[in-house]
Amino acid sequence: MYERSFMEGTRGTQAVDWEERIDVKRLREERYEKALSRLQDSELGSMLLVSDPNIRYVTGLAMTGGSGADHYTLLTEDGDIVHWDTADHASNQRFNCPWLDDIRYACPGLGNVPRASGSDSARNWLKQKMANLVTEAMEEYGVHKEPVGLDVGNQGLISAFENNGVETRTEECVDLMHDARKIKTQDEIECLRMVAAICEAGFQKIKETARPGVKESEVWGHASKELWRHGAMVQGGYVTSGPNTWPKHQANTTDRQIRPGDIVYADFYNIGYLGYRSCYYRTFSMGEPTKAQKDAYETARDNLYDVLERIEPGATTDEICKGFPDMEGEHADWYGADEHWQMTTNHWAHGLGLQLYEVPLIWRGLSPDHPIEIEEGMTMAVETMEPADRQGVRVEEMVVVRENGVEILSQWPVEEITRIDY
């Protein structure tokens, strides 16, 4: 495991002039340069980005969903950026984002607006208008005669560009952005370190508020408030307890009352800091855990660390995934499953960044036949689980790949179940 040096680690969340922290200007510029470099090495003359994480990666704009393709960005091979957004957003961006000098009003060709129109003719008009706006900008910047990359495979939008004589390529654009984003910069890693620290404040709040008779939803409310208080954007996550811990509940916090002897676990996924997403499980016991609970937790933790020991630059995912349980260890009989692909989300590692799932994915359901190589600077979450009588435990670590192994960004104690005495 990678050992951090003295004073290397999470700093404060505020801006100060007396120590170096996350440099947001450098964060924006380095991401932009990586995407531009990939574009310039390709056969594309430009890319039209509709996916929110890709837009944020290139522009620094905090996309939060909206109503579909009411915001999109064109990046040209010469480094020019044109961004389209809704009236209010575009107006604010012109004032607040001086690093962008060409912000225009968007026509929403995809998503909720066309869907809600109730009219095929309206939907076709919106797509064509969106394509026309982008084509006009491509002509202004001299890239209209070259192929444009498109990061969404919407056939209607592709047809609208074809009507304008513009060649679109989706697969090349998607692969290009995946390649740009898979290796994290110094500041991206610090964002993930920061969101891990914020999640730990949430775990502490769970430890303080989970009691017999208290509802899961109440505990989650206290934890969510704590996450927001520290500057996170809470766009996912849940707390679950007792029989809801095995099989894993449907990613929902319920109104179930916590009882003595319960296992409680929290999944802080899609908790964002400057857009960078967490995925971080921890397990708690209401009082002294039973032998079955302790044994299950030890198995889950050991499986997790077996995988972590295998991760290093140059290792391939087909070899690493062997650290995860086989079908017997997956308790496939209980699920009535025959193959690993049926066990999605139970034991795997997935990339972290501006999205919850980025490159790489390490999973017995996929990696043996489709391996990729691990590279220094990749960031990921590694998660395992195990049943314990009529309940279950889960554990997860957030890591970054270093030259000699992994650095663990998550620091909530993992050796044992966190015991909550009431």
From TrEMBL:
Segments forming domain Peptidase M24: 190-403
InterPro entries xrefs: Creatin/AminoP/Spt16_N, Creatinase/aminopeptidase-like, Creatinase_N, Pept_M24, Peptidase_M24B
Annotated Creatinase N-terminal domain residues: 31-131
Protein name: Aminopeptidase
Superkingdom in the source lineage: Archaea
Keywords: Aminopeptidase, Hydrolase, Plasmid, Protease
GO terms of molecular function: aminopeptidase activity
Keyword Protease among record annotations: yes
